[in-house]
Amino acid sequence: MLFKNATFFLFSPTLEWSHFDEQLQDCELKPVQGLELVSRGFVSPYGEDSEVLKMEQGPVLAVHSAQQERLLPGAVVNEALQKKLREIEKADGRRPGSKKRAQIKSDLILEMLPKAFIKSARTTAILDTAKGWIAVDTASRKQAENVVSEIRRAMSSFPALPLNAEQSPRQILTSWLMGGDMPEGLVLGLEAELQDPAEQGATIKVARMDLASEELRQHIEAGFQVVRLALIYNDRVGLTFGDDLVVRKIKLLEAATENLDTGDADDARAERDALLALMHGELAELFRVLAAEFRFTPVQ
């Protein structure tokens, strides 16, 4: 339940959630069958032995969106196809035409699919139904949108939209690196990425470096802008925030975890509930600060 990244979306806090249990049950993950390439749905955040498909703490919900996908690399298919074509050419004395080759390839895929390896993956999402935001544990916009789409499929309607910023993220991040005023509790970390705004401009990445260095200041005075910046919030959370409004490299620091109460050490459910409470609390506070600074609005 501890997030590594967070891609946020906004939705109306007036949405109805009273039937969410039943809606999730209708969209529970089913094993990929027969000739299916992929199967998507929800699995229990409490493990395989649980039938509960969501975690709930007041207005806070958490779900695991999962998928099973058959792995059938194109190189493997093409290798089998070439072998088949050589056999036909040897038997018939000529190579099949393009239409026949396409049919042979299609037949091979149908033959190989049931034997293909299956890859499983899951992604966690936390929803604050009172505040109207959802955080998905991924830095990939496409993957985050896939999770939102699965929730939308379950609910029939879930008008969640990506973030937009009324204030220029690059200008604010650049100002912070140059010593400008930062929201209370936020301080600079030790990583940054700068980019020349010119078309195909250069990119500079620094790590484990004092971001107040004269070298970085000179790059910014030359026109470079900050596109990602490492930050620490209240000595509790380390992170990197980008101009795409995605939070990356989330790390809860000792000040955040020292009082973590996971209940009975043998109670996995209590431990996961405690981690959800902790993760939501830190994400909610971080989201509040960033939303006020960058003036988040939903993309229209």
From TrEMBL:
Its main location: cytoplasm. The keyword Transmembrane helix does not apply. InterPro entries: RdgC. Keywords: Cytoplasm, DNA recombination. It is found in: Cytoplasm, Nucleoid. Belongs to the RdgC family. This is Recombination-associated protein RdgC.
